[in-house]
Amino acid sequence: MEEDNRTEPWHRSLQAMLDALNQTLHGAILRPSTPHNASTRASRDDNSYLYILFVMTLFAATVGSLILGYTRSRKVDKRSDPYHVYIKNRVSMI
After folding, report:
1. Helix-strand-coil split of the chain, %, nearest 5
2. Into how many domains does the chain fold?
3. Does some domain include residue 92?
4. pTM of whole model > 0.85?
5. Which structural domain, as residue segments, surrounds residue 37?
6. What are the pLDDT tens digits along the chain (94 aa)?
7. Backbone phi, then psi, for 31, in 5-degree steps?
8. Does residue 51 belong to any structural domain of this protein?
9. Which contacts of 83-88 are long-range, i.e. CB under 8 A and separated by 24 or more positions?
10. Is 76 exposed, middle or buried (0-12, 13-18, 19+ CB in 10 A)?
11. What distance lies between CA 48 and its chain's CA centroid?
């Protein structure tokens, strides 16, 4: 029981420090400010994650279409390929 009493002030100061850090990380300023400032910032940043998601989706679609187009163009056998023309002529001779 005696050890609990010695750690109590340390625990309270640690908890106060963690609460202050938590408020700082969540955007709450330790000194009071006008609520107009906080509401303006919150309304401005409400849809920022949608914008980031939209830009990432466009980037992924662009890169995906480029990769898909490149790989499909490499797989298609072109009739004007000299090797295929030679094989076609060679087979018709036999």
Report:
1. 80, 0, 20
2. 1
3. no
4. no
5. 6-87
6. 455 577 888 888 888 888 888 887 777 655 555 555 555 556 666 788 889 999 999 999 999 999 999 888 776 666 667 777 777 777 766 5
7. -90, 145
8. yes
9. none
10. exposed
11. 12
